[in-house]
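Case study: Flagellar FliJ protein.
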Amino acid sequence: MTAWAQSLIRISNYEVETLQKRLAEIAARRATAEMRIAVLDAEAENERDRARLDPDAGMMLAAYLHGWKSRKAVAEGDLTNLDAEETGARDALTSAFEELKKFEHVAETARLNRLMAIAKRETAAFDEMGLRKRAV
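Here is what the predicted structure looks like once written out:
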């Protein structure tokens, strides 16, 4: 494999690895956002149960739920943004893989062409040797 092909493949591999790390980081942030929504839901359910038992808590439940809705909307907005970011990262990773495969294909084709040229020269040399032997 030629030096330029190795360099291109190495650069492409680095880009793929970087995008894979980015995608993993996005997935971790997504899991955190989903956990935050689940915790908010559990807290709201806990407050509802508490409001059923305590009349004072029942009076404050509406204010709590109003704040809870705004916090949940923010968390769901973050999740929506992460979905879009994840889609973009997946598209970029797909493109990087395609580029890597193109470079690998070009390098392999160049290697095979080089082997074919060597084989042709070798065959020509053997043919020439055979003709010389026959002429003698």
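For the exam, be able to explain this: The first helix runs from residue 3 to 53.
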